[in-house]
Amino acid sequence: MSKAHFGLVGLGVMGENLVLNAERNGFSSVVFNRTYSKTEAFLKGRGAYKAISGAVDIKDFVNKLERPRRILMMVKAGPATDAVIQQISPFLEEGDLLIDGGNSLFSDTERRVEELESKSFGYIGMGVSGGSKGALEGPSMMPGGTKASYDAIESLLTKMAAQVEDGPCVTYIGPGGSGHFVKTVHNGIEYGLEQILAEGYDLMKRLCGMNCEAIADVFQFWNSSEELSSYLVEITEICLRTKDPEDGSDLVEKIMDKAGQKGTGLWTVVSALQLGASVPTIYASLNARVMSSMKSQREKAESILGSKSFSNSNLGSISDGMAPIMDAVTLSTIASYAQGMEILKLASEEYNYNLHMPSIAQIWKGGCIIRSTLLKRIQDAFKRDSQLPNLLLDPWFANQVTLRLPGLTRVVSIANQAGVPVPCFSSTLDYINSYSSSRLPQNLVQAMRDCFGSHTYERIDKTGAFHTDWIK
Ligand code: 6PG
After folding, report:
1. Secondary structure element (H or E) that encloses residue 29, with its range
2. DSSP-derived secondary structure letter, 373
3. Any catalytic annotation for residue 345?
């Protein structure tokens, strides 16, 4: 029997769909799962009548693969990934390649790349985005590791990936854990975009008294605009129109308002702070999830601190896409991408990832959760100026700020007066106002630091470090 081109460990829904994708693209495959019953069920079900075979144990799995072996691990990030590597390594031979397609912490990937490469195996840490449908039909993939390892799987990945007008949504990201780092930041942006859309929905519901169908109409309008056309806006419309089969009411309104998280948003914010990137919109979205999880405390606090009165505010009409809210959503969306790109730029310098920003924007244009038409503008902006300090400084984005800042300001002010939280909108407004202020009040912070701690300060009229004996 001829050996398989490609191996998969871990038959979760992502693993299943990725192996079906590989097989559909001409790569015969062998699959292994911790419990063989799952392998059997897959081979009898979705994997039947395909060039996919199963393995009873790791040795059998490795033996069924052609050399150099290409093995994709789709297992839980963390100790489970280390356990699979430990289990499989004794059977590998020089040049064999392991690919981790989970949402691993990039520093874990750095360590694993080093360990595996030192044993003459290849190791790729690859972010995969697009959910289960993307995995099957064409995801966006962010592989990092040595270039030689990437070259060994390039033909496989370019066929499996989503395709956009200028090529497949996969590229060599860079060395070490760079692939997982870029995926982490992708997810940080994803957190931002989700919260931004939720804030828009909340304002339309609470301040404008609109029902889910009317709000869905606005999302449909937004999805037809260049600025907001995106996967997340598209699925939000679907979510808002979906009814509870039990009673035909809006399903979204029956869902508990507590958002879960698996870690990548937190890692994005921690990395940003470590790198010195200012990411208030992304941070606000993470904090909003944390706050949402405190449901019972919030219920108690509402009875003590709450009792807000929501007036009917004029925030536009469906036919103009609730113009000021659209301004707020658009600028906050731009800020999320700008902040994510800023993290990538700093990480590229700090970790020597040598990231190519236009290519990252290019592979996010299709397949992934944050795909949007705006990414074409982002790609163009970094193509025009690879050293662009901030997306907001690109002429097209700067013009968006000019056009939409009054709307964002109005929305934040109305929301604040009504007591409706809009953490991402508010943070974006402060972000833009701070970034566009040549003078901030940190002169006074510096004075205080020098006053109590002799930390010294710089002056605007002379060079050097200065200290004043403030308390005589
Ligand atoms: C993707 C997603 C995916 C992520 C989920 C859950 O790109 O396909 O980013 O990888 O794991 O969206 O993330 P949270 O549970 O942290 O929201």
Report:
1. strand 29-32
2. T
3. no
* DSSP character string of 306-332: ------------GGGTSHHHHHHHHHH
| Span from the CA of 303 to the centroid of ligand 1 (angstroms) | 34
- Please tell me the distance between residue 129's alpha carbon and the centre of ligand 1 in angstroms: 8
Domain 441-472 homologous superfamily, CATH: 6-Phosphogluconate Dehydrogenase, domain 3 (1.20.5.320)
Residue the block writes with tokens 């590597």? 85
Nearest CA to ligand 1 atom 15: 261
The CATH fold of domain 183-435: N-(1-d-carboxylethyl)-l-norvaline Dehydrogenase; domain 2 (1.10.1040)
Q: Looking at ligand 1, which atom is closest to the CA of residue 140?
A: 7
Neighbour tally for 153: CB within 10 Å: 23
pTM over 0.90: yes
pLDDT band, very low/low/confident/very high, at 301 (cuts 50, 70, 90): very high
Residue tagged active-site, from 23, 110, 190, 227 = 190
Residue 399: Cβ within 10 Å count:
10
pLDDT in tens, 164-208: 999 999 999 999 999 999 999 999 999 999 999 999 999 999 999
Residue range 109-148, pLDDT digits in tens: 999 999 999 999 999 999 999 999 999 999 999 999 999 9
Q: Which protein residues touch ligand 1 with a CB less than 6 Å away? A: 103, 129-131, 187, 190, 260-262, 264-265, 368-369
Question: What CATH topology corresponds to 6-176?
Answer: Rossmann fold (3.40.50)
234 catalytic residue (yes or no)? no
Distance 104 CA to ligand 1 centre (A): 12
Q: Say how many Å lie between the first and final Cα of the chain, rounded.
A: 89
Domain boundaries, the chain: 6-176, 183-435, 441-472
Name the pLDDT band for 443 (thresholds 50, 70, 90): very high
Helix orientation angle between 13-24 and 147-160, rounded to the nearest 10 degrees: 80
183-435 and 441-472: identical CATH topology? no
The Cα–Cα gap between 160 and 128 comes to 11
Half-sphere exposure of 159 (CA within 13 A, CB side): 13
